[in-house]
Amino acid sequence: MPAFADRFRVRRPVPILKEEDKKQIHEAGLNVMGTVGVRIHSKLTRDSLKKAGAIVDEKTSVVKFPEDLTRSLIAKVPQGVVLAGREKEFDLPLDGQHCYYTTDGCGISVWDQKTRSRRLSVLRDITDSATISDWLPYLSIYEPMVVPSDVPQKTHVIVGMKESFNITRKHILSESTSTAQEAAFQIRMASEIVGGLEELRKRHIMSAMVCTMSPLTLDGHATDAAMVWSEAKVPVHITGMAMMGVSSPATIAGNLIVNHAETLALAAAIQAHAPGSPAIYGSVLSNMDPRTGAIQLASPEGLLLCAAAGEMARYVKMPSYGGTGCNAKTPGMQSSLENGMLALSSVLFGQEINNGIGMLDCSTVLSYEQMIIDDDIVGRAIATGREVPVTKESMHMDMIREVGILGIGPKKGSYLGERSTMTEARQFYQSSIFTSEPFEQWEKKGKKDDLTLAKEKADWILKNHTPVRLDEGVSKRLDQIVKDAANA
User: Which of 8, 146, 273, 417 has its CB 3.0 to 4.6 Å from that of 121, i.e. a possible disulfide?
Assistant: First the structure.
């Protein structure tokens, strides 16, 4: 296994739901699919499901799924998927033993720490955020983080993906695709990089997010795109966003049932259209603020929903993707608290892929400072989630006897001089920005606060890190695909 992926290996998750709870939620979701149904605005998808045995009402676009059909289609979802990097060094196996972290997309603004204000996002922000992401040690997957205001709406998705492919060797996740045509152009790009469409079907250097519409609806254009992705075997992150009290019941169990039905409906549709195409059970679930109706992405309820949805993914033997996002409007205490709780809970409860590094205000604002802080948060969470080996070698009983008691004997109870101490101490987590130095030293260095340190680190990366870019010939062919998209 590549060393990069091994960095994200974690121990077995702590369960939240009892086995009987998961069974009840699963069966309730199947019941909803079979009796209420799911409205699917994509005729292509309805036709594939009808051919597979689903009950389709063309007047309402509602599809009902017989339970046996759903079970048989979900069983076709492949296990053991690998999200590939441009280079194999960055391959990420989805095997239930790792916890990966992505950036998030769709930002329309960027936080300027110097002026403490927002500005419109531009293409350069994809360039810079991809460069920083390529360097960050605990960021696993890059997703174009903003909608560039200086790129025409017709091509902003294609241009953003081209820039991402060109800069980082890590796996690329596409979020903002809104049409089947956009999906097709991105598939052409990825195929150019790996050496053809057939190679792309085997080596998944990109994946794509497709959101459901709660309650119990699949958007036409997005679902058409999902069918295009599935034909090329591009893994689809099926991302439900049901909100407790608004688009689902105001209970965790009720929300999970709605999400389960929506997710399995799209997963089943993918298998009906292109059997064996990878699908990932994704969830960004939330509750409303009962005082205002506003979305509460980073609430304790949101964390529980995210973790429980991950358990439902494992229950149906699908890879999991989730996150809560961040409600904070600026980088700092609130954003770090919210993202810290998500990172730690994801490790403890076993979410495989987690989104949101570097984004504020419900994923609408990019913060370079928050990217740096979040990477440190993730590093700490991963370190907390590692296996604790209890072996003869790790117990060091002979050393404990030899070193003895403080102040007594030749070694006087000190482990500093032991050879293994120097080796093993190198495995301790080390922050790339924060310090443990004494107050006096910190004071002499200018008493820099956390955001100042994070800003300096982001600036240092942009100045000193040179990503390994695409081959010039491949890059030119991607430029031509961008031109084709503009003229389509």
Answer: 146
